[in-house]
Protein 1
Amino acid sequence: MRKLDENLWVNETPFTLFGADFGNRMTVIRLNDGALLIHSPTKINALTLNEVKEIGEVSFIVTPNNFHGLFAEEWRREFPDAKYYSAKKGDSGALALEDLMSEIGNEEIGILKVEGAPKVNEYALVHKKTSTLILTDLAFNIQHDVSMWSKVFFKLNGALGKFGPSKLMKTMISDQAALKQSIDRLLASDIKRIIVSHGDVVETKAKVVLKEAYSWCSSSKTTKSESKFTFSRCG
């Protein structure tokens, strides 16, 4: 576990998909009442579990899009009293992610459904106390400290050495105008840091980086793209 800020930690683990080193990152938020929120759970190991328990009691487990629930059941078994919120419809035993706000209030965390990419169905979270935007697949930030095949893979996928959506993510966008509105709403928030699931955390110029990453996205043009690929479960 790595502490980023007051009441904010990340757990970073290896994760390979298509033979490439995606890496995987879980975010842990300690709320004002001491309860923990686990965002995009990573695979459990004894060390991580003990570190989380030392921080507090897990009360909320969140799967923030259709693809990041691979390890959620492991955490639910360890913390059976925790409430499970998932973006994926039909996720067994899950509460609708839209209802999380009414559970914890909007003073600590903001939640925005990212429109325009229903196959991904991502919800962005903002930890208000630390001005941290938390994303999953809306953007990657893969740098060059990966294997040679990984460099080739991410280069071909338009996701090497920069922050932004991969080519695969772009194929899942069906409505640019709706996505642009969601990005604009995020940019209107107080954001100083961006946590992504795959790649490096953005610690400076967060709004500039986010705006530039989606500068191609038109507010007036609607596109419909169909992908032949799927993320399957990517952490």
Note: The first helix runs from residue 46 to 55.
Protein 2
Amino acid sequence: DFMAYIEGNFDGYQHVGFKLKKAYVTVNDWTVGYAPSTFSDPNAQPPTIDGAGPNGRITHTNILVRYMHSFRDRWSVAASFEFPDSHPDITDGQTKKCSDYVPDICAMGQYQWDEGLSHVRLSGLIRVIPYRDLIVGKTRNVVGWGVQLSTMFKVFRPLTVYALAN
């Protein structure tokens, strides 16, 4: 199996340029490129007409290398190295942003039913966030982590439940 995906948009009147939103290639169980994070679960987010998306939405696109395998038509597991763009809190004269040099490690496990239209997913993330402490003159690294439980399932036609817990 092979798939190439590109998504972008033009930013309208003042911002006429093309903005790349996603660009990746999937070959069998491997995905490489600028793709949705393994930590996020886009299918567990309700459809909305709000351009900013639903409240509490956690979705991010990273440059990544992901392995995702499905088996027995019900289970999927994935792990990825993702190259983030951290945004630590910066205080003038005290701290400054540094380049990210350690990739995030993400993993997820998902159980699905109803021919893949319903699922429950547990995902996790470990990240190293570097910043420069200007007072002491040292670069520091803070380790962060996150866990997400998400689901989407049909109760009855047309009622579908979407849920995220972080």
Note: The CA atoms of residues 5 and 131 lie 34 Å apart.
Protein 3
Amino acid sequence: MDIYQQVCRHIVIPLHAIWERTPYLRHLPYLEKSQFFPEEEIQSIQWEKIKNLLKHAYSNCSFYRSRFDVAGIRPDKIQSFNDYLSVPIQTKADVINAKNDIYASNVAKFYPFLTTGSTGKPLQGFWDKKCSQFKRACALRSSFWSGSR
């Protein structure tokens, strides 16, 4: 790494993040480390995140709670990947028709984003600031993969 890259990575970018008041760089050490975790550890982390996501969706989104109830599913009963396969698949039309029922009641502010529309028409989604900052750190890590420093 040349001196310019060192200055940018360790001084300019962190100072810019402080100026922006964005915490995305705090995620970067974990992302850089976790990409080399053994497969079993990654699968364990993924499974915990899936279980937490299902619990969150059921507890905070009437759209998902209704879908789970109709299918006779409770998130706490999903104990394996085979159980997870019983979670109803949601289509783009389902999400569009959900209107306000899809919003998580425990999130104060959402920020809109659009999908690329690779399946025909872009879909508007929403995320909170924490998600946005984590995604930004992921994008930075992927830039590192391509050699950008």
Note: The longest helix spans residues 39-60.
Protein 4
Amino acid sequence: ILLSFGVLAGFGDNFSFTALRAANVSTSWQSVAFALALMGFGAKAGLLPLHAWLPEAPPVAPSHISGLLSGVIVKMALYGLIRVVFDLIGQVQWFWGVTLLLVGAATALYGALYALVQNDLKRLLAYSTVENIGIVCLGLGLALIYLGTGHPFLAALAFVASLFHALNHACF
């Protein structure tokens, strides 16, 4: 995460969000910043292949902390990813959406398949969180694809659907 901000700040005056937004970053460095943000925030959110900590944490935590982990803390990583990609990096590239779409699909499938075979309820809920994070990333990936190809209405629709699913999962 810090490296992603560092790449963006290297083209700006400082680390303030205003300076990061105003920085004149080339497309290749924007892609580097996106990849670093995806790896950093993806590890915090539980995206494949950086998800290994997520199924292990809730079973050893008290129940109310497990709910907080799945409902709030994992969503904060998604908020960070959204903020960097949609707000700070600048011009969105459609192939970032393809990357996020593939990672989200793999994460959702992995989480669903592993949730099916769990006997421990907390571990089942942890894998369900992995699945739902993947589903949210599917929507974000579609939003990036639509935004990068010049379809702002469809991008907004996919973005809102993704946020709605994140809200539903947080409430659940």
Note: The chain has a mean pLDDT of 88.
